[in-house]
Structure to design on (453 residues):
């Protein structure tokens, strides 16, 4: 250490001086918390001085302020989604409807009739209203709601197939993303994976050939985030139900997105619906609550009473169960489908049902407020995302930003770091804000963000 470093260390502010600095005091944090942040900032400055940054001491107050600000302000700041990915996992998947958000807030901040005796005198289970809604919407006898779809699949395999064999097509023993791999989930559940068929072609007779006295079930997994195209074959769900039931096995399906509407109506490819899976004879169908269903994070298991009751009685069911805010939000979301207003009220479907002409008009309205040559309107493609309809796009319109002073990545970074936060998409050296995924009430905020660029 040289003399200059010794002097810089000596000049580091004392903890008390940092605590009393006006910028720090203005944040009005609890005293011990302020002291800890000040110590951390001073320690970091000391390390930097030892590495040769002699002016590090000057930034101690600012560093303390930013440590405190991170603790105290907006831990999950709202974001305007301009990516064009409707079910954006990194941005929180499906935004819930206003009705569902109100129900969740009310459930969170008060007491609710979660497991009370209902007006009918019957003791209502935690999910009895949800079961009633899912019964009319999908035809399933019973339902169980858990934390997420990964939990639903895991609980199903554990409770229904533990120690026994489960047949899965080789093309479906896949990774869904974020550490959810079918072979790993099966292993952890205590069930034994038996792969049948080949990666691209699997027939009903491949399943039949693999059945023995240890077989418990056939598991069908929806290829959510990829598509195998070309020379492919796989049996219809109905055929698999026949094979399973002829051999006294269960047919389980991990359908992924939990779609309740016909996607064709929106110009999309067919995405299997929960009702179709039940009608085809699946004994259990597992889906996410926050993909195409458009509700809160949840795992929805629907199917035959006997199967659901076996899952409900398993000790893991308690460990994986959904909380009251989730149940309230899910019930409110399902009510939109029961009322028939999902297309307008559930944000995911509102976004998917916007036409290209409507989106072009929306971008034109934004442009009318932006008197600036950097902005223009371009045709683009949105995607559903969240492991639904891989490779399928919807024609859309985006606001394009080309800044002669800064490259596209820099502009995108500025949009992500200023308030309100905008997440754009960068394509061909242009920054795009896809009009489809900007929520209806976010136009003004978006314009504020764009004007401050
Ligand atoms: C998304 C998905 C999952 C995981 O669901 P989570 O709700 O994120 O736990 C499992 N299986 C399939 C087929 C999926 O698409």
């Amino acid at each position: 250490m040289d003399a200059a470093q010794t002097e810089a260390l000596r000049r580091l502010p004392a903890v008390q001086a940092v605590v009393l600095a006006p910028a720090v005091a203005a944040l009005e944090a609890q005293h011990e918390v302020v002291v800890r942040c000040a110590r951390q900032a001073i320690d970091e400055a000391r390390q930097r001085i030892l590495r040769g940054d002699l002016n590090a001491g000057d930034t101690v107050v600012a560093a303390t302020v930013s440590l405190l600000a991170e603790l105290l302000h907006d831990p999950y700041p709202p974001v305007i989604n301009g990516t064009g990915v409707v079910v954006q996992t990194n941005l929180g998947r499906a935004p819930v409807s206003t009705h569902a958000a109100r129900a969740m807030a009310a459930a969170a901040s008060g007491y609710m009739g979660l497991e009370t005796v209902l007006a009918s005198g019957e003791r209502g289970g935690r999910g009895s209203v949800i079961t009633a809604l899912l019964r009319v919407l999908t035809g399933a006898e019973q339902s169980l709601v858990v934390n997420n779809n990964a939990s639903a699949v895991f609980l199903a395999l554990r409770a229904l197939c533990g120690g026994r064999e489960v047949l899965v097509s080789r093309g479906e023993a896949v990774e869904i993303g974020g550490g959810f791999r079918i072979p790993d989930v099966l292993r952890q559940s205590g069930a034994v994976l038996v792969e049948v068929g080949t990666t691209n072609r699997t027939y009903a007779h491949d399943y039949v050939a693999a059945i023995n006295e240890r077989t418990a079930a056939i598991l069908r997994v929806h290829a959510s985030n990829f598509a195998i195209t070309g020379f492919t074959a796989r049996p219809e769900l109905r055929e698999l139900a026949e094979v399973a039931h002829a051999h006294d096995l269960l047919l389980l399906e991990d359908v992924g997105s939990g779609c309740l509407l016909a996607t064709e109506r929106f110009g999309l490819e067919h995405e299997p619906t929960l009702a179709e899976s039940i009608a085809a004879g699946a004994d259990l169908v597992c889906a996410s609550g926050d993909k195409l269903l458009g509700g809160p994070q949840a795992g929805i298991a629907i199917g035959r009473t006997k199967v659901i009751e076996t899952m409900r009685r398993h000790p893991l069911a308690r460990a994986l169960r959904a909380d009251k805010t989730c149940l309230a939000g899910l019930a409110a979301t399902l009510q939109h489908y029961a009322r028939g207003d999902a297309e307008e009220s559930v944000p995911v479907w509102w976004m998917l049902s916007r036409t290209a002409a409507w989106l072009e008009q929306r971008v034109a309205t934004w442009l009318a407020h932006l008197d600036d040559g950097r902005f223009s309107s371009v045709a683009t493609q949105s995607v559903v995302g969240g492991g639904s309809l891989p490779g399928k796009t919807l024609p859309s319109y985006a606001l394009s930003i080309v800044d002669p002073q800064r490259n596209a990545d820099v502009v995108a970074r500025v949009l992500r770091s200023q308030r309100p936060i905008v997440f754009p998409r960068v394509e061909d050296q242009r920054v795009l804000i896809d009009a489809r995924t900007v929520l209806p009430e976010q136009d003004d905020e978006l314009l504020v963000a764009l004007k401050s660029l």
Notes: DSSP finds 20 helices and 16 strands in the chain. Residues 104 and 325 are 5 Å apart (CA to CA).
